[in-house]
Design a protein that fits this description.
The complex is a heterodimer. By secondary structure, chain A is mainly beta. Chain A has four helices and twelve strands, in the order H-E-E-E-H-E-H-E-E-E-E-H-E-E-E-E. Chain A folds into two domains: 175 residues, Beta Barrel (Elongation Factor Tu (Ef-tu), domain 3), CATH 2.40.30.10; 48 residues, no CATH class. In chain A, strand 10 and strand 11 form a beta hairpin. Chain A is globular, with a radius of gyration of 23 Å. Chain A starts with 7 loop residues before the first helix and ends with a strand. Chain B is mainly beta. Helix content of chain B is 8%, strand content 46%. Chain B has one helix and seven strands. In chain B, the strands form two sheets. Chain B has a five-stranded antiparallel sheet with strand order 4-3-2-1-5, with no helix packed on it. Chain B has a two-stranded antiparallel ribbon with strand order 6-7. In chain B, strand 3 and strand 4 form a beta hairpin. Chain B is globular, with a radius of gyration of 16 Å. Classes of the chains: A mainly beta, B mainly beta. Chains A and B meet through strand 1 and strand 2 of A and helix 1 of B.
Chain lengths: 235, 116
């Protein structure tokens, strides 16, 4: 797909340029998607060290606007990341074409919003919607740990390593003998990790709008390179 | 741009351009900014460098001194804005990168030969 002057995306870009590259209403988007780059540290104003996670966030493109009339609720669907043509499914291709997006977006996610007025399909939203000092939460799929025992998975205490003990990290009792069965949800060894985790109480330390980098204080779930969602915290 | 290059470029503005060539065994004066009651002053910590940890912005040096008979060690992040400057007063000749063995030595045994 090529950008012609009459293309909805081009029109939108013109509007963006007319407002000096900024669309204040885009700040209404409650979050942004990005890739976790890795961790490092910076110094704050007091000279103290702050551990930070660098996230390559945005630009995200609005792919669909959901309204109460049509969909029963209001939300904005945004897309992020590149995908090679080979991996682009035909339904997704049609969906993006309908939105007037000429980019093979890899991830599509939805954000619930109160009003959809500020959003049009094809609109580009950058990391600028965040500012330094803002409280955020970060959601991502945590690292998979595989099949783990109770000590690592549920912080069981385990038994003695020495003094003649021959059990060390076993779960031991599964419950009382009265019910003659094991209750559902009893903590047992099993698969750990590789599930959605939300880290709360984080803060935006700095925003590099030019390159779309967001520095978040502390650590965020997932390995380097994984998809993360940075959410604004409702006041 | 790969991930490492991004991380390095992110911390670039926080790093100091000039760094003194501090090596283990050197005797160094660290000038630290101290905030007391809204006033800022410089405090000097002088001692022997027993360790240098590298790693870009995370680089730090551990300085050990004997203060009124008690061994005191402080670790300074080299790029911290709270460290005004390092002043090398004496170069030491040592054969290890980490001089943790000095913790068990006192007096004459804890001397370090000067490097010329």
């Amino acid at each position: 797909m090529s950008r012609s002057p009459g293309h909805p995306l081009s029109q939108r870009l013109c509007q963006v340029r007319a407002t000096g590259g900024k669309l204040p209403e885009a700040r209404l988007l409650p979050g942004i998607l990005g890739y976790k780059v890795g961790m490092t540290q910076v110094f704050n104003d007091e000279g103290r060290i702050v551990p930070v996670t660098v996230v390559q966030a945005g630009p995200v493109i609005v792919t669909q606007v959901k309204t109460p009339e049509k969909d029963g609720y209001s939300a904005v669907q945004i897309g992020f990341g590149d995908q090679s043509e080979k991996h682009l499914t035909f339904p997704k291709f049609g969906h993006l074409k309908k939105a007037g997006v000429n980019k093979n977006l890899r991830h599509l996610r939805e954000f619930r919003v109160e009003s959809t007025e500020a959003f049009t399909p094809g609109q580009e939203i950058t990391a600028e919607i965040f500012s330094a000092g803002e409280p955020v939460t970060v959601t991502a799929k945590g690292k998979g740990r595989g099949f783990q025992g109770g000590v690592k998975r549920y912080h069981f205490k385990g038994q003695h390593m020495t003094h003649g003990y021959m059990t060390h990290r076993r779960p031991l009792s599964s419950g009382a003998t009265g019910p003659q069965r094991v209750f559902k949800g009893t903590k047992k060894p099993g698969h750990m990790g590789d599930e959605r985790v939300t880290q709360k109480g984080l803060k935006v330390v700095a925003v590099d709008a030019e390159r779309g980098l967001i520095l978040v204080s502390g650590s965020v779930p997932g390995g380097n390179g994984c998809l993360v969602t940075i959410n604004k915290v409702a006041k | 741009m790969n991930k490492q290059a991004i991380l390095e470029s992110v911390v670039q503005p926080y790093m100091k351009e000039e760094q003194p060539d501090i090596r283990p065994g050197d005797t160094v004066k660290a000038h630290v900014k101290v905030r007391e009651g809204g006033k800022e002053r410089i405090q000097v910590f002088e001692g022997t460098v027993i360790a240098v940890r590298h790693g870009g912005i995370q680089k730090n040096v551990t300085i050990r001194k004997i203060s009124s008979g008690i061994g005191v060690e402080r670790t300074f992040p080299v790029h911290s804005p709270l460290v005004a400057k390092f002043e090398i007063t004496r170069r030491g000749k040592v054969r290890r990168a980490k001089l943790y063995y000095l913790r068990d030595k006192v007096g004459k045994a804890a001397r370090i030969e000067e490097r010329r």
